[in-house]
Write a structure and sequence with these properties.
The chain contains 8 helices and 8 strands. It is of the alpha/beta class and 313 residues long. The relative contact order is 0.18.
């Protein structure tokens, strides 16, 4: 694959920093956020398919980042939760897949907000007309993973009232396997989880819309989210969670589905599918840096509002 998209992306980021005044109240470093994205969506990682070389590089990158966080605890050895599974379609066995987990104790509560994003993607496939065969998964889901790391950094320096668990999950593309492994081997009682917040595809949207799915089941969060979004430029929309609506119902479409199956409340932040979904063209050149940064800050502010306003138990 040509390196031209990466060079264009770098030029765009430089231009964006020179001509954009950060919004008041933004807590996430745009520069760090986009640096994570550029690495995770690079050709070097070859699409991050579970247990392939690029996936292991992504794992090491995330593990190194978690190791440097202040005030974060490792509840699994070296922040790594290993798991095994069998691909139901191919019957292939996968051993030593890995979720990367960090825990930040709450100042007032042992209830846990589990924040998730999957770092795997689908690897290398058939080349398209331009000869590109690497599915870099810039939006799906290098975007959510990059946001997860910067949200982890924020909470490591700003202790929340409730405990925060940061979980970079593997093997989502093979059937939510990392999320299923985590909830089946959760280090605490599942009823200690206040909420799962999952991020999957938050890097681009031509309508400036970010969806939050889950309030159909958990309406107690809707007013908090709506009020928080009023202070942001992104249009936060509710929906994609109505039973019986087929593919329009996202309740089981990403890692939050494993939490839903265990009756754990969830909120899922993501955009609607775009033309590059699950194609080699889902590259960093398609990421909208302004939207991505604002989306991450909005999600963080939603987490902060929930942490502040939900009753401490």
């Amino acid at each position: 694959m040509s390196i031209r998209p990466i060079l264009v992306f770098r030029f765009f980021i430089i231009l964006w920093f020179c001509n954009t005044t950060p919004s008041i109240g933004q807590k996430i470093s745009s520069e760090n956020l986009l640096a994570h994205l550029e690495f995770l969506a690079s050709d070097e990682l070859e699409g991050r398919k579970t247990l392939e070389a690029g996936n292991l590089k992504a794992r090491q990158y995330i593990q190194n980042f978690l190791n440097k966080l202040e005030h974060a605890e490792s509840i699994y050895p070296d922040y790594t939760h290993y798991f095994s599974f069998e691909n139901s379609r191919t019957k292939k066995r996968y051993d030593d897949a890995a979720n990367l987990i960090a825990y930040i104790p709450g100042s007032e509560s042992k209830k846990i907000i589990v924040i998730t994003a999957h770092y795997d993607h689908v690897g290398v496939g058939r080349a398209n007309a331009s000869g590109d065969s690497i599915y870099n998964g810039a939006d799906d889901n290098a975007s959510g993973t990059a946001a997860l790391l910067e949200i982890a950094s924020y909470f490591s320096k700003n202790r929340p009232k409730h405990a925060i668990m940061i979980a970079a999950l593997d093997a989502e593309e093979m059937g939510l396997q990392g999320a299923k492994a985590l909830v089946n081997d959760f280090p605490y009682e599942l009823d200690q989880i206040l909420l799962n917040i999952n991020m999957d595809m938050i890097g681009r949207n031509d309508q400036n819309e970010l969806y939050v799915s889950g309030t159909h089941y958990y309406p107690q969060f809707k007013d908090i989210l709506g009020t928080t979004a009023q202070n942001h430029s992104i249009n936060l929309r509710f929906g994609h969670d109505i039973p019986g609506t087929g593919a329009d119902d996202w309740t089981k479409s990403s890692d939050h589905g494993a939490f839903f199956a265990k009756q754990v409340p969830h909120l899922y932040f993501g955009v609607e599918d775009h033309e590059d979904y699950h194609k080699p063209s889902d590259d960093i050149s398609g990421i909208q840096a302004d939207f991505f940064t604002h989306a991450t800050n909005l999600i963080l502010d939603c987490i902060l509002a929930i942490d502040k306003k939900i009753e401490i138990k």
